[in-house]
Amino acid sequence: MLIIKCPYCGDREETEFSYGGENKKRPADPYSLSDKEWAEYLFFKKNTVGWHNELWNHSHGCRRWFSIERHTVTNEIKQSTPSQLSMEENI
Ligand SMILES: [Zn+2]
User: Fold this and answer.
1) What's the CA gap between 6 and 38, in Å, rounded?
2) DSSP assignment of 7-56
3) CA-to-CA distance for 4 and 76, rounded, in angstroms?
4) From CA 59, how far away is CA 24, in angstroms rounded?
5) How many angstroms separate the alpha carbon of residue 19 from the centre of ligand 1?
6) How far is it, in rounded angstroms, from Cα 68 to Cα 80?
7) Around ion ligand 1, which residues have CB less than 5 A away?
8) What is the pTM of this model?
9) How remote is the CA of residue 27 from the centroid of ligand 1, in Å?
10) Distance 7 CA to ligand 1 centre (A)
11) How does DSSP classify residue 89?
12) What are the φ and ψ backbone dihedral angles of 54, each rounded to 5 degrees?
């Protein structure tokens, strides 16, 4: 069982969390992007082998978003930090 550290609650089992995908920086002005650039932001993911910055939600806990740096092969987690997303947007 993968143990994930929520920056607000501490270590918990992975069943308490929902994966939110790659932690990409949202474009500052989405309206200035072409349709192709916007589609690339929304739909194209890196599929990284190695260290990957990801968004997670503690959906069965504090319900807050945070980011972790996880190795996609070994599932080792380097760090867990509060997400800018949870501070700026309520999703
Ligand atoms: Zn939590």
Assistant:
1) 30
2) TTTEEEEGGG-EEEEE-PPPPS-GGGS-HHHHHHHHH-----SSEEEEEE
3) 10
4) 20
5) 13
6) 4
7) 6, 8-9, 58, 61-62
8) 0.80
9) 27
10) 7
11) -
12) -130, 155
Say which residue the tokens 């932690």 belong to. 23
pLDDT digits (tens, 9 = 90+) for 34-69: 999 999 999 998 889 999 999 999 999 999 999 999
Determine whether 47 is exposed, middle or buried from the number of CB atoms within 10 Å of its CB (0-12, 13-18, 19+): exposed
Say how many Å lie between the CA of residue 6 and the centre of ligand 1: 5
Q: 61 C-alpha vs ligand 1 centroid, how far in Å?
A: 5
Query: What domains lie within the chain, and their CATH numbers?
Result: 3-88 (3.30.2270.10)
Ligand 1 centre and the CA of 38: distance in Å?
31
